Amino acid sequence: MKPLSLPNRTARNIRKTVCALFFSVLAWIIALNCIAQEPSVRFIDVNGATIAEVTAQLQAEQIYLPVDAVRQVFDPDMADQYNHPRKRLTLKIQDKQIRLQIGNPIVGIDPGGMTRNLPTPPIIIAQQPMLPIAFFTQLLPDFYNLEALYNPNLKRVQLRPKGTWTPTRTDNSVNWTIIIDPGHGGADDRGCESSTGLLEKDIVLALAKQLSSISKAQGIQVYLTRQTDTKKTHFERIQVAKRNQGQLFLSLHCNASFSPHEKGIKIYLNNLKGYFRFPSSRGGVAPPLQTGQRLKILAQADFLKQSQDFAHALQTELNFLTETPVEIIELPLVALSETYMPAVLLELGYLSNVEDLEKLSNVEYITGVAEAIVRAFQRYISSISPSPTALEQAQ
Ligand SMILES: [Zn+2]
After folding, report:
1. For residue range 327-378, what is the model confidence (pLDDT) as tens digits?
2. Considering the domain 177-276+291-380 in this protein, what is its CATH number?
3. Which of 36, 90, 250, 356 has a CA-to-CA distance to 388 between 20 and 30 Å?
4. Ligand 1 centroid vs 345 CA: distance in angstroms?
5. The domain at 40-161 falls in which architecture?
6. Ligand 1 centre from 359 Cα, in Å?
């Protein structure tokens, strides 16, 4: 074989280097992609602030977290011990010892010899013991007198003090009545309509009914301004609120926009000093208010602070459900102007947006929204009349 001439050898070396460079860059891209695709679980506190974001592992559609997540989220002083040959994991939390076994859903708790069952057992990934998400949402919170709320879609866990928002059902002096107003209704007031034929009036009525049953189970009295697909005037809705001596008024609606990109949940408050979000045809200047109108709006303004408090409670709870941050908008709002009680108008999403429409067509999502709203009721009620448990905890 004839030895290679120098220029040839150089060319081959260059080709080799380029090749090596290409593959190392490719390897990096793949590696970076793998890191980016690793799911993570975000733990947030009562007010939605992040406690920790933990890298998770997905195995057979189950989420697993490393043992260290216990330290990151719950307890920096937690000590753990793993016995490799016996596949036993022991966690020392405060004065308790939690015994876990790889592949076994039964968890032992000492002292006392109690056991708890997990829906999925701990497993080994890359030679490390990994704990199922249920360990963090169903078992651990108990040890810290917390309760957890898990949103598997967004991989988000909210931790809140146990019992803080449970209404004081035994205390008769706290008797809460909330008015739920499903917007629109009847043949000629259908509200917004989606391209798939979904109607605002039907979505809000279905949600209102769920809200009613969940609230009642929690000891909160609820009245609906309409129970069926019937037309109701603004006056008739207000009358229901007055007749039943409501302490809070929540009007439910859906949005629609000419822009298919507009999406998300919006909370509206009636504030005379608020700005007009949609400029009028008169070049963005609000139409002058007549005397009667002004008086009515001012009367509602007496409840502005409470309405804002409830809006913030709603915002915090609904933010848990969605990636698009929930907006609060204050503006002079005729729809709430004559309700002489704290009042909020909730726009559940845009029927003109594909993502919002998909959510609003989903029965499970609507149930999630109903549960979040009831938690907001509890949050708001307990901010006005804290339960004995919360008071005890504060002492
Ligand atoms: Zn509407």
Report:
1. 999 988 877 877 888 999 999 999 999 999 999 999 999 999 999 999 999 8
2. 3.40.630.40
3. 250
4. 9
5. 2-Layer Sandwich (3.30)
6. 17
